[in-house]
Amino acid sequence: MVKFIHSADLHLDSPFKSRSKMPTSIFEVLMESTYNSVTRMMDFAIEEKVDFIIIAGDVFDQANRTLKSEIFMKRQFERLKDSGIFVYIIHGNHDPLTDGFKTSWPDNVTVFKENVETFEMVSGKGERIFLHGFSYYLDDSYENKLDYYPVNTMNQGIHIGILHGTYAKSRYSQERYTEFNLEVLNDKLYHYWALGHIHQRDQLSDLPPIHYSGNIQGRHKNEYGEKGFLLVEGDDVYLDTRFVAVQELIFAEYQLEIDSLNKQDIYQKIVEFKHRLREKGRHIIQLELVYDGEDVISDADFTEVIELLKEDERDIRQFIWVDELHLKYMNQDNIALLNDIKASYSSNKELFKEAVNALYMDPRLNRHLGPVQDIEQEELLKEGEERLKMLMRK
């Protein structure tokens, strides 16, 4: 039985978009997050004694690749070599072969060239494994080389296709490189397809298993949820997959219903929400508050809540950083109408006087009213506002 890891899209040294408002301590965690995620994957590989690791493209981030990232990966590969674990890498659109890769990897690492190649290895239990793939030569490589992947006619061994590209029916927004459909992959008669490029984990087929592993660490709000790699185990009959999360932190979006716009109540509600979320690890979140009443909160009060939430996380190791906080009024149209009415009429003393006079001149009403000199404009307007709100709810 063979055991291997399918990973992709490490994007070491990729810039992070959520940085300007963060405390230094949180930003430093963010910048090191991908390195820590990769280290966890290597630790797992060594502990589980896998036969090999596949990296299906975009190990580095083209414009931002540093000496630090190259030395880091070399040391990780040397750790794997010491444990007898092999590595198979294809380069993708973010780290094409023309981008000056001159790093000398340990001899347990195989890098596919720009033309489709096949490499054979023997697992620890004696299975013959055939790996097929190619690396991008240019960063804008749209050529489709699937026709050059050999068809498995041997009826022996385990055949694995490695491809960095876009499923023709993909619903994700990444740029489209080397488009393919399932029929073309199925025609190769492989036992497994290890895909890269799409940063969300996705299974395209069960027989044969065709998977995107997703990226190993989210970099912004659109790369949400748990991140990691796929552990693949099995034989030439079937290969089973299991997702293993290794992310340093999670990007996520949440909605939170609130029943008060008092700033202390809002703050406390969010603190309680963060406390529940904190048990699941570090997060950078977009939070939308949903309010179903007619009250409004001032910009100054809302800003005060935001600033205090940020202050709370500055020295917290297991932080929940609220990167964006929005308030959604469910009765927004009614509130806007009410505010328009108040702005147009509440300060118009002449109009108020005319309205009061009309009330007192109606014999059906005036007997229920107190002395006109006791009428308080502010109280009467407040009562009118409450009655208007009641009518709007109907």
Helix and strand arrangement:
Elements: E1 2-7, H1 24-48, E2 52-56, H2 67-82, E3 86-90, E4 109-111, E5 117-122, E6 128-133, E7 158-164, E8 166-167, E9 179-180, H3 182-186, E10 192-196, E11 202-205, E12 210-212, E13 228-234, E14 239-245, E15 250-258, H4 263-278, E16 283-291, H5 299-312, E17 320-329, H6 332-345, H7 349-361, H8 363-366, H9 377-393
Parallel strand pairs: 1-2, 2-3, 3-4, 6-7, 7-10, 8-9, 10-12, 15-16, 16-17
Antiparallel strand pairs: 1-13, 5-6, 11-12, 13-14
Describe this protein's structure:
- It is a single chain.
- This protein has 394 residues and is of the alpha/beta class.
- The protein has helices at residues 24-48, 67-82, 182-186, 263-278, 299-312, 332-345, 349-361, 363-366, 377-393, and strands at residues 2-7, 52-56, 86-90, 109-111, 117-122, 128-133, 158-164, 166-167, 179-180, 192-196, 202-205, 210-212, 228-234, 239-245, 250-258, 283-291, 320-329.
- It has a six-stranded mixed β-sheet, covered by helices on one side. It has a six-stranded mixed β-sheet with strand order 5-6-7-10-12-11, with no helix packed on it. A three-stranded parallel β-sheet has the order 15-16-17, covered by helices on one side.
- The mean pLDDT is 87.
